[in-house]
Amino acid sequence: MAAKKRPFYIVEQDKDIFVVDKPAGLLAVPIPDSNVKNLYDLVADHLGKHGVRVGCVHRIDRYTSGLMVFAKNKRAYDDLYKKFRNHEPKRTYLAIVRGIIEKDEGTLEHHLKLIKEGFRNIVVDPSEEGATPARLSYKVKERFFENTLVEVQLDTGLKNQIRVQFEHVGHQLVGDQHYAPEEEKEPLIDRQALHAYQLSFKHPRKSKTVKCEAKIPADMLRLIDQFRWNKEKHTS
Question: Which of 56, 100, 111, 143 might form a disulfide with 126, Cβ 3.0–4.6 angstroms?
């Protein structure tokens, strides 16, 4: 009988850490009172067969692909959880947004508030109760005809932060139906074009920095190819 294929790709592991590339559509952690498949349970099952108890130190959105770190013991968990809570790791994403971003690089700073309606974050005045600072920096990687590929580094890590902040400045993520319902019409991708592609953090035991990278998934590569073709068509 053939071995059962794992729904995630192992990027890096040792006796303390377990770094995986999560596919879009897979929940990062369990939802209360739900049996929906999630990455945490899959990793826990995989490592549990080797007598390892796993801890989740951070998460990414269900329909975002890319890197997630798990701890393989309590010491590693306590160390990594603290680092992520203090925003110490360098978390870098690739996003494809609507419109042309004119500045080659920049910073977005807002205050976000989580609301019950749709369980989403919205941009609010800093003085509003529940307002939490959100900050990210970005660099333009490539401009297409009507869209832009950007590299985004999170300085904070709020729910849906990249999606909310770019939508607020008029550059919603391609395919992000939650914050831009009109994206339902996008035929090339059925989720937000967002990928957690680079991650670096100080190892919980060794005096070294762990640097990981996850390949750009096929659906985002398809978008990039199509948008490049559109640009060539309109500029030739």
Answer: 111
- Read off the pLDDT of residues 170-228 as tens digits, 9 standing for 90 and up: 999 999 999 999 999 999 999 999 999 999 999 999 989 999 999 999 999 999 999 99
Is residue 150 within 8 A of residue 106, CB to CB? The reply is: no
Residue 6: which of 30, 54, 39, 48 has the closest Cα?
39
Question: How would DSSP label each residue in 63-103?
Answer: T-EEEEEEESSHHHHHHHHHHHHTT-SEEEEEEEEES---S
Q: Is 14 a catalytic residue?
A: no
Exactly one of 16, 21, 61, 176 is catalytic; name it: 61
pTM above 0.70, yes or no: yes
222 and 96 in contact (C-beta within 8 Å)? no
